[in-house]
């Protein structure tokens, strides 16, 4: 009996797999360095915070998740001392989420780790392929299309 040929993965699955590879490398490397492991969502929060602080509602919008989900990610980071809440000078009702000094230290370490992981990827797939991949992912894609399946 012949084995069924596995269908090729679609682009979203390939991108998700690549993302998991980076996340796994980052988590394992940070854990090996003695850092508290963070979830992927918690890591994304750092990249989306403004220097002066960002509301949970705005973080939720940027993450593409509910306020409750964003609040859960932020709450864990607050408990670890990586983020802090401060009053929003433009609104008495809102609180801003900002990175603490310890959060900045961890974020810088994570960014430096990701640079090394990218270098490993370039060694494995070739520098030209890694550059082409980065270039392709930074091209403008425009608004997501609405299409009819054939």
TrEMBL record:
InterPro entries: HTH_MarR-typ (IPR000835), MarR/SlyA-like (IPR039422), WH-like_DNA-bd_sf (IPR036388), WH_DNA-bd_sf (IPR036390)
Domain of life, source organism: Bacteria
Domain HTH marR-type: 8-142
Pfam families reported for this sequence: MarR_2
Protein name: Helix-turn-helix domain-containing protein
């Amino acid at each position: 009996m012949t084995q069924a040929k596995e269908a090729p993965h679609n682009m979203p699955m390939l991108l998700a797999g690549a993302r998991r590879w980076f996340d796994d490398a980052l988590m394992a490397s940070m854990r090996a360095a003695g850092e508290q492991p963070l979830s992927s969502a918690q890591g994304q929060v750092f990249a989306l915070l403004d220097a002066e602080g960002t509301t949970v509602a705005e973080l939720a919008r940027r993450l593409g998740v509910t306020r409750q989900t964003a609040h859960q990610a932020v709450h864990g980071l607050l408990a670890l001392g990586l983020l802090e809440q401060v009053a929003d000078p433009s609104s008495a009702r809102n609180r801003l989420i900002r990175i603490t000094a310890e959060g900045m230290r961890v974020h810088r370490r994570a960014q430096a780790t990701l640079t090394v992981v990218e270098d490993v990827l370039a060694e494995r797939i070739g520098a030209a392929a890694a550059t082409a991949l980065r270039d392709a992912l930074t091209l403008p894609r425009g608004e997501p299309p609405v299409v009819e399946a054939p």
